[in-house]
């Protein structure tokens, strides 16, 4: 493989027409330049210069090699630009994983900020609520819990503790209370809102078991927003994380749950390989600001 530094010297000597002038402009000694040119001739097996008096004259092969090397230096200059863009987060891609309620609440502001500040960055957004068997994205919002294995090649950043609340009708007797012991919901009919038996579901059912009961589900739905209209009919109550209470329909309210208080712990993992990427750093900043707000 040809040495780029020697090719630069070849081009410089041909451009200046003198070994001494090249050495002076580049801060080398004339003997060092001559040695590099001799080594390049040996590596290529070509005669690149002829002796003419006390100087040298490039051969046809030498001129051709110098001319063709221009493409190499153009490509290297372009690569330098790519490196600068990568350092600034202007190009490349970042994948972000999320679960439903966090995605609906936090991801749009994160995406808006990244698209505004890194317009050439490609974003790959994935639903990763059920993480088994999927490749970990660069940035992943998830619900942490005992027993969840964290990838060794990612850093884990706790974001917020998200308590569960009961969603009831305004005319429900529970609506008049500031907080309700979880055991007080044992005799109520529930509207299920998560049939996947994921981490969020386990957090709630474990706390119910701690309170001494298993919920009686009157209706099965697949998400929080679908559950709310059923609660409005009066068929039952539903229990959701506070982050999931977005655009609560009129006629419904929330009540805090205690003794024990169900809480899910939301965290974000960031692959070590992208931890210093400006877009990853910015995404984490935006997420933390949203949590504080």
Catalogue the unreliable spans: none
Number of helices: 8
Task: Note the main sheet.
Answer: 8 strands, mixed
Overall structural class, as computed from helix and strand content, comes to alpha/beta
- Give the averaged pLDDT, no decimals: 85
State the distance separating the first and last CA atoms: 57 Å
Concise structural overview:
The protein is an alpha/beta fold and 293 residues long. Helices cover 41% and strands 25% of the residues.
Overview of this protein structure:
With 293 residues, the protein is an alpha/beta fold. The protein has helices at residues 4-16, 19-26, 30-44, 60-88, 100-117, 199-210, 224-233, 278-292, and strands at 49-52, 55-58, 93-98, 122-127, 139-144, 154-169, 179-181, 189-192, 216-220, 238-241, 252-258, 263-271. The strands form 3 sheets. Strands 3, 4, 5, 6, 7, 10, 11 and 12 form an 8-stranded mixed β-sheet that branches. Helix 5 (100-117) links the parallel strand 3 and strand 4 (122-127). It is rod-shaped, with a radius of gyration of 33 Å. The two termini are 57 Å apart. The mean pLDDT is 85.
Q: How would the blueprint of this fold be written?
A:
Elements: H1 4-16, H2 19-26, H3 30-44, E1 49-52, E2 55-58, H4 60-88, E3 93-98, H5 100-117, E4 122-127, E5 139-144, E6 154-169, E7 179-181, E8 189-192, H6 199-210, E9 216-220, H7 224-233, E10 238-241, E11 252-258, E12 263-271, H8 278-292
Parallel strand pairs: 3-4, 3-5, 7-11, 8-9
Antiparallel strand pairs: 1-2, 5-12, 6-10, 6-11, 6-12
Helix pairs in contact: 1-3, 1-4, 2-3, 5-8
